[in-house]
Amino acid sequence: MKVAAIQHDIVWLDRDANFARLEPMIREAAAAGARLVVLTEMFSTGFAMGDEWASRLAEPRDGASSQFLREVARSYGVWVAGSCPELASEASLPANTLVIAGPNGEMHRYEKIHPFTYGREDKYFRAGSGHLTVDIEGLAVSAFVCYDLRFADHFWALAKTTDLFIVPANWPASRAAHWTTLLNARAIENQAHVLGVNRVGTGGSLQYGGGSRIVGPFGDCLAEAGDEEAILFAEVSHELVAETRAQYPFLQDR
Predict the structure, then answer these.
(1) Active-site residue identified among 59, 84, 111, 146
(2) Quick one: CA torsion of 113, 187, 101, 67, rounded to 10 degrees?
(3) Where are the beta strands (DSSP E) in 36-94?
(4) How much is the pTM?
(5) Which strand (E) or helix (H) includes residue 67?
(6) What is d(CA 104, CA 1) in angstroms, rounded to the nearest whole number?
């Protein structure tokens, strides 16, 4: 399966502008044969946390951002994923929710388990509590978001039933080396593909340097980006994961 990671800038708290920016990039990825297209964390708003932004940030479940994902998935006949701030009806805070939309109207959600406490994300977002793995055309895809990347035990818990981990992020340029190292580590230690897609540009007071990459199950870099907007493509497969694990049966020794 061909997958695509869209590394993009984000217009601060302007959903319509971001939808307009991303739709042609998704169309391009689909036209190039991608079956799964992954956008960044908070693709429609930016990481706009703070008392001055809170009232404009959250949107209801099945709000504008998830509707956008559903519509482009249907329009271009592909799976599309990205995270957005969804507020469930019974909750007091939104969750940083990775929505995966399918071409036939399928909708799957993963709520980020680890809010970034150093950045006060836990003040404005509630933590999720469950994992998500979705069968996408025979490929087992497990979802995490940004800061989750630092918690290897969650990846380990899903490793044996995962072919591809996707990790949308807003990862600051100041910690770019951590981003690259951890993506590589999660692929190598779990013998699975890892797709990490990060934003570029400036959001709030932070600079984002991109560095998106797709890593194979033996740790080889299949595609990588610099610090500009880009679309990354790579071929991933269940068969390659199975072959790697059969040749090097590391997981059974945990």
Answers:
(1) 146
(2) 60
(3) 36-38, 59-60, 79-87
(4) 0.97
(5) helix 64-76
(6) 18
Burial annotation 93-132 (CB, 10 A radius, 16+ → b, else e): bbbbbbbbbbbeeeebbbbbbbbbeebebeebbbebeebb
| Residue position matching structure tokens 């679309």 | 231
Q: Domain count of the chain?
A: 1
- Which sign, positive or negative, has the C-alpha torsion 79, 85, 86, 90? positive
Reduced to 3 states (helix: H, G, I; strand: E, B; else coil), residue 65 is: helix
Specify whether 224 is catalytic: no
71 among known catalytic residues: no
44-89 tens-digit pLDDT: 999 998 887 877 899 999 999 999 999 999 999 999 999 999 998 7
Q: What Cα–Cα distance (Å) separates residue 63 from each residue in 41, 45, 198, 240?
A: 16, 13, 23, 37
67 lies in which domain range? 2-253
Catalytic residue of the set 59, 84, 111, 112: 112
Strand partners, 97: 84, 111
DSSP state of 127: P
Residue 43 token pair:
């693709």
Both tokens of 156, joined, read 């380990």
* Active site (annotated) includes residue 221: no
Looking up residue 22, the CATH number of its domain turns out to be: 3.60.110.10
The residue annotated as part of the active site, out of 41, 59, 111, 224, is 41
pLDDT tens per residue across span 176-212: 999 999 999 999 999 999 999 999 999 988 999 999 9
Residue with tokens 């993506």: 183
